Amino acid sequence: MLFLDDFTRSEVNGLPYYMTNRRWLRGLFRGALEEAGFGPGEWGAETHADDVAAFMTLLGLPPSVESWAQLTLRDALPPPAEAWLDGLIGDAFVVGFELPPFLIRHLCRRGNGFLDVTIDPVRFARDLFLAVRTNDPALAARLADCEADENILWADAALLRGQMAHEAPPRPAGEEVVVFFGQTNRDRSLIHNGRLATPMAAAERLAALGRPVLIRRHPSEETPDPIDALLRALPDARTTEENSYALLSREDVVDVMALSSSLLTEARYFRKPATAVIVPDINNPALLPVACSRWYRVGAGVLTPGFWHGEAVRVPPVPDQLRISLNAFWGRERKEAAAVARMDAELASLRHEFADLRRESADQQAAGSAEIERIRAEASEKAAELARMAGDLAASRAEIAALHASTSWRVTAPLRAVRHLWTR
To answer: Tens of pLDDT along 406-421?
Structure first.
């Protein structure tokens, strides 16, 4: 067994490389596959960048994003490149995260079994699902028996629509609108006929609908130019940051369009017509071997030894189980957007209260400091007065002592004695 991914989607070709997805996949499947007798192996571009660069040279392609996209159309590879892949894979059963079409074709030619895995495009449900395809007929049959119950998706969509309706602000009656959902500009699902499609591919279709267009940028897209070009081509279009599922729940949204976004799949459960502008090469049957099955939407049953021993295992979805495992919360973040907004408002209110308390404390401290300084000044004055009185008392005592010691006081002592007797 060998865990692989699209190793050509790496820094060698000027693209970010997400090795954590392959490692997550290995963590998911390793236990069940080892229990079924497979020995695990793993290969990735993070430690074999030079090998990936050498492979691109064997293909006769310069390292670039464009070359990565062109690879989806490559059928028969140059013999040196085929030999390189043979040396990498041998006779292993391949478990891959988003295997590229050229590699799927190679595996089918060689007779290697594979399981290609990605995240299912429905992400609003109580948990994520896996989307899986294979060239093994027995595995395909078990996957079909393990598919997720559609009723779960309809129920979760209904609950989400209810939540959005309950939390939506009053909206005046207006024109019917179309929503266009953007994507990250280097998404593999944007590769069409060996080239990366851009939002401008949707301009004519959107204009032909004759309705106002709301454009929802992808929250992870940092390059505004592709969407900006579409906005310039559609004068009546405007962007929105409204929650994607809130948009799908709106009654005035009558059509949904995207190049190939997963939201097009989800729109069905919100009863919205959806239009895909392109068919991604990764899902184009004409570019895939006949032996490659369709995608199956499955849960955690495929992660059990029972599945790999030939059983059709269904594991009921546990809320957020796969989300937490992958640390990816697409659907849950959208569903809880209103709750998060409320928490943000409460946090802001608490911050204001805390700021008021700090100001009040500072005022009290300042007032207390002033009172302390007043008492200190008063005490200082009292101490000075006491010192002055003590000095006066000492001076008086000195004068009395001097008087008692004088000659006149001694001479007049008999007279004071007679006076004392007389006054008695």
So the answer is: 665 566 555 555 444 4
Instruction: State the DSSP string of 103-161.
Output: HHHHHHHHT--EEEEEE-S--SSSS--EEEEES-HHHHHHHHHTBPPHHHHHHHHHHHH
Could you tell me which residues come within 8 angstroms of residue 128 by beta carbon, excluding any fewer than 6 positions away? 119, 120, 322, 323, 326, 328, 330, 331
d(CA 339, CA 345): 10
> Residues, the chain, total?
424
Residue 230 to residue 28: CA distance in whole angstroms = 40
Q: What is the pLDDT of residues 187-217, one digit of tens each?
A: 899 999 999 999 999 999 999 999 999 999 9
Dump the DSSP string for 308-369.
HTT-----PPPTTHHHHHHT--HHHHHHTHHHHHHHHHHHHHHHHHHHHHHHHHHHHHHHHH
**Who's near 269: CB < 8 A, 6+ residues apart?**
122, 124, 153, 154, 156, 157
User: How far apart (Å, rounded) are the C-alpha atoms in residues 42 and 2?
Assistant: 5
E strand or H helix at 233, and its extent? helix 225-233
Strand order from edge to edge, sheet including 213-216: 238-239, 213-216, 177-181, 253-258, 274-276
Nearest alpha carbon to residue 214 among 189, 250, 169: 250
- β-pair type (114-119, 130-134): antiparallel
Structure tokens at 280: 């991604």
